[in-house]
Design goal:
Length: 289
C-alpha cells in the first residue's frame, strides 16, 4: 500500500509562506506582507508536483529558526532553471523558514514528504507551471513584453545603444528561440538575452545585442525579470524545443574587463560610486576573467 500523508490538506506555516500537503503535490502559498521578498509576492502561489522533487532537507537557520527545503529536480521548474543558481537564499521559493520551537513538527513533515518522493535526476520536461503571460517589465534600455507566443523589445531613447536604435524595436516568435540567458540585476551587467536559433554569433555585450535588454538600478528587478525569463523558457520548451537552453553570461575579453575597471575607477574618483560599490563591482568584473 503506497505511503500517503497522514492528514492530506495539512498546512505548515512559516515566515513568508505556508505549505499545504496533498497526496501528489505541495501547494506553496506566499504572503504579501511588506517584509515578504518581492519575488514571493509576485509568484503568489505555486503547486509543486511531488514528481518535480527529489529530496527534502531540514537544517538550522538564523536567529532561532529552522529551514525546511524541498529540492527540485534539475529541469523540473522553469523558474529555478532560468535563475541558474543566482537567487539569493532569502528568495529561494523552495525554502520554508520556521521558528526553532517547531523543529519537531517540521521534521515530521520532512519525513512524511520524503517517503512520497520516488523520482530523482533531471526531468524530461517542466513539471512546475511557469508564470502566466502576459508579462512585461522595464529594463534600462527598453520595455520587454511577452504575450505567450512572442517577445517584444521596445527601446528607450534615454538608454538604448546606437546599435539597438539602428536595429529598431524587436519582436521574436517563440519558435525562433532556443532558450534564454538571465543574469541577475543584482550583479554588474545584469541582463535578459534571448538565444536565437539561426542568428549566428550574437554580440558578446548585451547592450549591443538587439535580442537582449540590460538591467540597471531599479530596472529589471528580480521579481519581474525572472518570472518573465521562466515564462519564455517554458514556452520555448512547450513549442517543441527539447534542447532549449539556459546560458551563463559569456566570459569577457581581458582587455574589455580592464577598460571597464578603468571606467569604474573614474566613477569612483568622481564620487559617483562608493568605496563598497567599487570593491564589489571590481570583484565581479575580475571574476569574469
Amino acid at each position: 500500500m503506497p505511503h500517503t500523508m497522514s492528514r492530506m490538506g495539512d498546512v505548515l506555516a512559516g515566515f513568508h509562506a505556508a505549505w499545504e500537503f496533498e497526496s501528489d503535490s505541495v501547494l506553496i502559498r506566499y504572503e504579501r506582507g511588506i517584509r515578504t521578498p518581492k519575488l514571493f509576492q509576485a509568484l503568489g502561489e505555486r503547486r509543486v508536483p511531488l514528481a518535480a522533487l527529489q529530496g527534502v532537507t531540514l537544517s538550522p537557520g538564523r536567529r532561532g529558526t529552522v529551514v525546511l527545503r524541498a529540492e527540485p529536480r534539475p529541469g523540473a521548474d522553469p523558474l529555478i532553471e532560468a535563475a541558474a543558481g543566482q537567487l539569493k537564499e532569502s528568495s529561494d521559493p523552495y525554502r520554508l523558514v520556521l521558528p526553532a520551537e517547531r523543529e519537531t513538527l517540521a521534521e515530521y513533515y520532512a519525513d512524511e514528504l520524503r517517503a512520497l518522493l520516488t523520482e530523482s535526476g533531471p526531468a524530461e520536461r517542466h513539471l512546475v507551471a511557469a508564470p502566466e503571460a502576459p508579462l512585461h517589465f522595464k529594463a534600462y534600455d527598453g520595455k520587454a513584453s511577452f504575450d505567450g507566443t512572442s517577445v517584444s523589445f521596445r527601446w528607450f531613447w534615454t538608454g538604448a545603444s546606437s546599435a539597438k536604435w539602428k536595429a529598431g524595436d524587436q519582436k521574436f516568435a517563440v519558435a525562433e528561440l532556443n532558450g534564454v540567458e538571465w543574469r541577475s540585476p543584482e550583479v554588474f551587467e545584469g541582463h535578459l538575452r534571448l538565444l536565437r536559433r539561426d542568428a549566428g554569433k550574437q554580440p558578446a555585450q548585451a547592450d549591443q545585442d538587439p535580442a537582449a535588454v540590460v538591467f540597471g538600478l531599479g530596472y529589471g528587478p528580480v521579481h519581474e525579470s525572472l518570472p518573465f525569463a521562466a515564462a519564455v523558457l517554458s514556452a520555448v520548451r512547450s513549442a517543441g524545443s527539447a534542447g532549449a537552453v539556459v546560458a551563463a553570461a559569456p566570459r569577457r575579453d581581458p582587455a574589455d574587463i580592464a577598460e571597464r575597471i578603468r571606467h569604474l575607477g573614474e566613477l569612483h574618483r568622481a564620487g559617483l560610486v562608493t568605496d563598497e560599490e567599487f570593491s564589489v563591482k571590481k570583484a565581479e568584473l575580475l571574476a569574469e576573467l
